[in-house]
Structures are given as C-alpha cells and as structure tokens.
Amino acid sequence: MRSSSRVLPLGVLTALLLSQVCSGIKWLALSHTSVHVNQTQHCKLLPGLVSSQAQLCRTNVELMQTIIQAAREVKKTCQKTFADMRWNCSSIDIPVDVQKYRPDLDRGTREAAFVYALSAATLSHTIARACTSGDLRLCSCGPIPGEVLEPGYRWGGCADNLHYGLLMGSKFSDAHMKMKRSGSHANKLMHLHNSEVGRQVLKEAVVMKCKCHGVSGSCSIRTCWKGLQDLKEIAMELKNKYLSATKVVYRPMGTRKQLVPKDIDIRPVRENELLYMQSSPDFCTKNEKQGSVGTQDRQCNKTSSGSDSCDLMCCGRGYNPYTEKVVERCHCKYHWCCYVTCKKCEKIVERYVCK
Fold it and tell me: Signal peptide location in the record (predicted)?
C-alpha cells in the first residue's frame, strides 16, 4: 500500500507556526477574560494558556486572579509608556485568535523584546504586591532586612515579597519557553533572556520606604521597609533598554550555538541588555505583514522636539489642526480646616493629528 501524507491548509499551518512563536506572551490574552477564577474547572475557560500554565492554574487557583490583573497592567503600562512613539503598543491587545496576531510581536523585534521583559517584570511585581496587600493566602510580607539602620530608623511595616513574586512569576511566564516544542531554540533563548532582563530591572527597583512617627509630626522615629517602585518607573527603565537594544544572530561559538551581537560579535551578550533578531519597520504607514498600524490620525505635539513631535510622529506627511473644549478645575481656594473648593473653567485648546 502506498502511504499517504496529509498537507495542512495554509491558514492552519500559519496559525500553528504563530502559536509556536508567540505563545510565550499569549497569556496576556487574560486581560480580556471576565471569568472570576476560584475553582479548578475555571482554568479550562481561560484563553492563551499552554498546558503547563493550565496545570499551574489548577494547582494555584488563588494566584490566577493576580495573574489576570497583571495581564491588564501589562497592556495599560505598555500603551502609556509608548504613547509618545510611532509604535504605541497597540498590538499588546492580544486576541485569542492567533491568526489575527500582529507580526510586530512575533518576529523577534525589539518591540517583542520590550513586551517580554515588561510582561515578566509586571507579573512578578503584581504577585509581590498582592502578597503585601493580603490578596494571596499563600504568601505574606517580605523578610525584614538584616542590615542595621542609623539611629531614628527602624525596620517594620510590610515589605513587598519580591522573592515569591519572582518565583511564581518566572514559573508562569517562562512556562512556554521551557517546553520542548515551543519554536526555534534561538527564539526561546532570546525570549528567556529578555524576560530575565525584565526581572533584573525589577530586582533593582527595590527601594527603602519610610513612615514618620512622633509628636506633632516631628518625625523623631521612622519605620521603614523595602518596597518596589511603581510599574511606570520600571517600564521607563525598560524603554531605555528598548532604545539601546542589541541585534543578535544565532551562530556557532566554540562547541555550541549561541546568541551573539550581530555587528559587534567580539563580545558576548550582556545580561542587562534587551535582544532582538529582526529589524522593525518605521511604523509610519499601515502594513499588515509587518504589524504596523501607521500613524495616520495620531495626535502629535507641534511644539515638541521629541518622538511625539508632529515632524517625527507624522513622518513628514504633515498634520491637521483641530480645536477641543476642555473643562478644568480653576480658582481653587483652601478653607480652614481642611478642604478645598474649586470652580470649573472651560477653555478652547488647539490639537494636531497626523495626515
């Protein structure tokens, strides 16, 4: 008998290939879910999970609401951080249908590098904060530091539990990249590296926070704890790394293949730099194949000289002015003691959008 081989339709094959490439951050589709996860059977209703993540859901059901919150935070933070750039993170709004997934995040671009790093950092950050707030019964406050403080300062309060956040965050976000069948080895190495860069920035975002105590606000004693900076600070640090990201290639180095800088391969990859393998488009015009939505109708700043300027944002196409009525608080007065009253004032402002 002659053996027959089955040829997959192009659409199905494309979907399978995309799911292999982008599943590392497909869990961000959880930002769309309306399911309140409090039972193991709810795990099968969640979009974007690979098998190992679904298993983690079943064994850590309580953690899933925090992970859903983290997915929403990634989307919100990413879009705010890049609001002044041509690429404004619109593709972070990942649909469940992989066939509609935009190429700017599945081609190994610097945009993908940023999203992987931000996703990993945000997940661990959200879990660490949930421990502090008491939203998770599985963890509590972080440990009291061993360092001795100067007179007038003492350790207390509730530290963010970064250790637990990093442990569970990496277990969930890296689950897909550690599966055997999860795309090319080069992509896995790159995504794992960028995720670890995000967590490294998070580790460096631990600061000492203090609360004053004393008679009449004298602040004679300060109770202090270790806490994480806000996500917007961490995202801005990752944005700086995005702007200076290193393009890499996967080539033999000694006895095995490694990711090495494409143009400066005399040095190894640094642990604190974001990596990408594919160049990005300029994002000026709409191009579905490259994942660019273009900048037409984007608001720009006529007086700016930065990335949000009308010249850069509109890519030389020009811009159109329009007026908008804005209502603001005005003529505010402080009343003893202790409240403020304000009036509402209307004014007309001029805005500009790209042609």
Answer: 1-24
Contact 28, 48 (CB under 8 A): yes
* pLDDT (0 to 100) of residue 109: 93
| Structure confidence by residue, pLDDT tens digits, 70-110 | 999 999 999 999 999 999 998 887 655 544 557 788 789 99
For residue 157 the two structure tokens come to 């309060």
**Of all residues in the chain, what percent carry a pLDDT higher than 90?**
59
Which domains are present in the chain?
10-288 (no CATH), 310-354 (3.30.2460.20)
C-alpha closest to that of 64 among 142, 133, 126, 134: 126
* pTM exceeds 0.85: yes
Each residue's pLDDT tens digit, 231-260: 999 999 999 999 999 999 998 877 888 898
Taking the CB of residue 50, how many other CB atoms lie within 10 A of it? 18
Closest CA to 204 of 121, 123, 131, 141: 121
Question: What is the C-alpha separation between 286 and 60, in angstroms, rounded?
Answer: 42
